[in-house]
UniProtKB/TrEMBL annotation, chains A, B:
This is Uncharacterized protein. It comes from Naumovozyma dairenensis (strain ATCC 10597 / BCRC 20456 / CBS 421 / NBRC 0211 / NRRL Y-12639) (Saccharomyces dairenensis). The lineage of its organism: Eukaryota, Fungi, Dikarya, Ascomycota, Saccharomycotina. Residues 156-307 form the Gal80p-like C-terminal domain. Residues 18-145 form the Gfo/Idh/MocA-like oxidoreductase N-terminal domain. One of its GO terms (molecular function) is nucleotide binding. Pfam families: Gal80p_C-like, GFO_IDH_MocA. Residues 332-352 are annotated as: Disordered. Residues 332-351 have a biased composition (Low complexity).
Length: 444, 444
């Protein structure tokens, strides 16, 4: 098991830390302060925040003061921020709908920063597959190593499941079922919720976010993209009741244009495996099952992932495994299976599968904080790559995509492929067609 | 609750029993002797076997002797059997692939039997929707009251679930998920299994049988047909290993043309409800979930049906209900929901839904034998209709279809609608299209 071995970033690297220029970090609120910032703080020998961009310079300065970012400079223009030679990696963590208008000039201006090596963007990359493709191309032309925060790929549960599948513990995959509940797209809306998460086209919705992350993880675990897919997208709850922080209705009703239900089914390229998948929004949440269930049935064992919320990338999960240990597979003895050898056959069972050797295992880290844990592990893998902490011989200085490798991290190319899948999900619904998606992993 | 009240067939009717002419009853083997025969035996004041058809007259005579059918005559030709005036109801329980060639002459010959009133056929009615339509029309022209053995509609679990939905116990249906495991369509085949159940076009397969029965029950419970559907049908296991009765491989491999996996998704006509459904074949069966799971999520409660096999119509099930009692619904008070009334609102919760009043119930008849229990209840409902044991005023002497009524029993029209759905499932897969099925319940 060379892959997936423990990160060595606890070692202090010989070279200086990766200098991070951040767009979207505020000490007041938001995702970055809860997830990216603790990761950078824990990896302080590997990462150092040296620049903050905010058009409101006061906010940037205040964040620097509050977080005591003694090495950081505040920038109020994209041009000055992007061209600062004091930055090795730019992290973008803002509303998806602002990504395109920010990244295009940023990448242009950044040409004057000779040290810039990494660009780290939150999923979703953009509001449309066209925008995503443009961003991808510009970043590639700029020669940057990119990172997309499909951070569920770093979840210990996902990696363990991937490992069990990869090592043959469940045999060939026979079929897969996924059911998720994407919390907030329901009958009610919290008054304090930002309205953009209920507006279609803003890059944050049940399909792009809840389904997007989860199906990326499914592909990553199984090591296969889809060959054909069909989907039906529903907005059955076009109006929501606004509720206050106590759960009381305010009497206000507001319109919702993002979907609240998704039916998706498809076939994995590898093995023509049927995948049934549904995501729903709306409370009451499910009573008799978890809000996230991924069932993977194999010829020699089963895997089940369960989570309390339909957001696999930031939920603490439970992984169940049932099957027989790979090393315990009885030697198959087909030549003797002519009836003369029925005693032996009886021992091993009809499939060379001995039910007596069946085991069940449960993987669960009781106190794992998946919200920042997976982001932390993503930063860890960037450091592993940058400092080659695993001392991998001939490690390239760049790679285009992670694909289904254990090592590395997802890139904008991985993001682009996922954007194409999401785009096909919406198209399948509109066209009323089953679509061939077997070539969406091509380069632009 | 007028519907679904206890059958009164234990009362001895004033008129004589329904005289049954049976095709496919053999004391040696088969489905009929295990299911139809015990039902008729238990309802001996309501049903009496008076005729047996078998081209091999010896088998018919032997069955009459063995079962001591003292009132029964053996017939070796369809013509003599069908024209016998001593028969009120013909029951057909043979291989589906023989239904059409049997029913067409049977219906023709039966014109000389003035007493024939009922025709009872096993599901599936025929091998194709065209054949089913022809049979339906001939039986209608012949003026017969028909019965199809979609017997799951008589399952106490299905009826209780239907009742809970009908009476508003779960509010509006929000989404539905179904996952079934259709046992035998897997990697292995028992040597003694008849080969026709593995050959496509014989009317017995994962889609027609396992899915067909289950989706009929879903429609029946929810009271809605589908508006649009999409499906993908798989034959991922085109060859099976033959195993003997001890579970040992014989070394023989045989071809299989019926599907082993089905992905189905669709939208209910009523409420545009998303339905996600998958059926799989093949062992190992599921480790972490039951082989049949139907999850129905409502705005005010959830229902879950579980069974040990993907054959809802002949499995003993467990029905779980979570929600609030219909009679306990707090009075909705929307006019006051302007914030001035927050104390009251707090009591009732944001949806007029009081979590404190939430209850959970489990329905399970531990020793219920669903294999013949549901068939028995189907016979019971025929007797209820024939003798009007529930003393329903103005009960018509015939009805075309059961549709979604609690009373009555499914007819060939119900069967025809289901055949059309099954046909569309296969067509959707071949065409790669989402299909509009909103008009499949039209009369021919």
């Amino acid at each position: 098991m060379d892959y997936n071995k423990r990160s060595s970033v606890s070692t202090v690297p010989n070279t200086g830390p990766i200098r991070v220029g951040f767009i979207g970090l505020s000490s007041f609120k938001g995702w970055a302060i809860k997830t990216h910032y603790p990761a950078i703080l824990q990896l302080s020998s590997q990462f150092q925040i040296t620049a903050l961009y905010n058009p409101d310079i006061g906010t940037a300065l205040s964040t620097i003061r509050t977080l005591k970012l003694s090495n950081a400079t505040a920038y109020s223009t994209l041009e000055s921020f992007a061209s600062s030679a004091n930055v090795d990696m730019i992290v973008l963590s803002i509303q998806v709908s602002k990504n395109f208008e920010t990244l295009i000039p940023l990448l242009e201006y950044s040409k004057t920063n000779p040290n810039l090596k990494y660009l780290f963007v939150e999923w979703a990359l953009a509001c449309s597959v066209q925008e995503a493709e443009t961003i991808y191309k510009m970043a590639a032309e700029r020669g940057l190593q990119t990172i997309i925060s499909l951070q569920g790929r770093k979840s210990p549960y996902i990696l363990r499941a991937k490992e069990l599948i990869h090592e043959g513990y469940i045999g060939d995959i026979n079929s897969i079922e996924i059911a998720g509940n994407g919390g907030w797209y329901g009958y009610e809306r919290l008054q304090k919720s930002p309205s953009y998460i209920y507006e279609l086209g803003k890059g944050v919705d049940l399909v792009t976010t809840a389904f997007g992350h989860t199906i990326d993880l499914l592909q990553y675990m199984t090591g296969s993209y889809f060959s054909r897919i069909n989907s039906m997208v529903f907005n059955n709850i076009p109006e929501q009741d606004v509720i206050d922080e106590h759960g009381n209705r305010t009497g206000q009703r507001v319109s919702k244009t993002v979907p609240d239900h998704l039916l998706f089914q498809g076939t994995l390229l590898n093995g023509n495996v049927p995948v049934s998948c549904s995501f729903k929004g709306g409370k009451p949440t499910k009573k008799f099952t978890k809000n996230l269930v991924i069932d993977i049935h194999g010829t020699k064992g089963d895997l089940k992932l369960e989570g309390d919320a339909g957001f696999a990338e930031m939920s603490n999960l439970v992984l169940y495994y049932s099957g027989i240990r790979a090393n315990d597979y009885p030697v198959t003895n087909n030549n003797n299976s002519n009836g003369n050898d029925s005693t032996n056959n009886n021992n091993n069972g009809p499939n060379g599968y001995d039910a007596g050797k069946e085991i069940m295992e449960v993987y669960h880290l009781r106190n794992y904080n998946a919200v920042n844990g997976n982001i932390f592990r993503l930063y860890q893998s960037i450091a592993d790559f940058h400092f080659n902490t695993k001392q991998i011989p001939h490690l390239p200085t760049q790679f285009i995509m992670q694909g289904f490798e254990f090592e590395g991290f997802p890139t904008l190319m991985d993001a682009l492929i996922l954007h194409r899948l999401v785009d096909n999900v919406y198209r399948s619904n509109i066209l009323g067609s089953t679509l061939d998606v077997s070539s969406i992993c091509r380069y632009p």
